[in-house]
Amino acid sequence: MTFELLEIPGLTIPSAAKWQVRLLARGEGDLELIKLLTKWQKQYPNDYRKIISSIKIAAQVLRVYDHKRVKKCDDPKLGDIYEFIAYTGPIRLMFFYESTENQFIICTNGYEKGGPQDRAFITCHNLMVEYFKFKTAK
Predict the structure, then answer these.
(1) Which residues contact 36 (CB under 8 A, 6 or more apart)?
(2) 14 is a domain residue
(3) Whole-prediction pTM value?
(4) The domain spanning residue 66 has which CATH number?
(5) CA atoms 135, 70, 57, 91: torsion sign
(6) I want to staple 30 with a disulfide (CB 3.0 to 4.6 A). Which of 25, 87, 93, 129 is the partner?
(7) In tens digits, what is the pLDDT along the chain, a chain of 138 residues?
(8) Looking at the domain assignment, is residue 28 inside a domain?
């Protein structure tokens, strides 16, 4: 499997930010997350704005500890997996940190409340593991 890091359309992060934010595409031409964010922007405009606001804040600081913006996965077996949240809304965007010289926050998959949240965290974890294998093999 190959991976590509994509920018979030319309998201501007100041150049002095601590983290760059990217979407993880599984192979060239994979726009799954961009399509999901576009859907959320139309279907849940207020919650989408909250997610984007949370992303902008997270890019500026070492770690976000505001449970109304970011939640860490409770399962220690999955490692450092997080979700951006629209606190009272249904949408979540799963992510992990890549602490390299470029400092990335990498968003892997989405989740809407009402479904199996554990599966969303597991998907994020699995994508993180595969991403680091891919990056190491390069």
Answers:
(1) 110
(2) no
(3) 0.94
(4) 3.30.2310.20
(5) positive
(6) 25
(7) 799 999 999 999 988 899 999 999 998 889 999 999 999 999 999 999 999 999 999 999 988 888 889 999 999 999 999 999 998 899 999 999 999 878 999 999 999 998 778 999 999 999 999 999 998 987
(8) yes
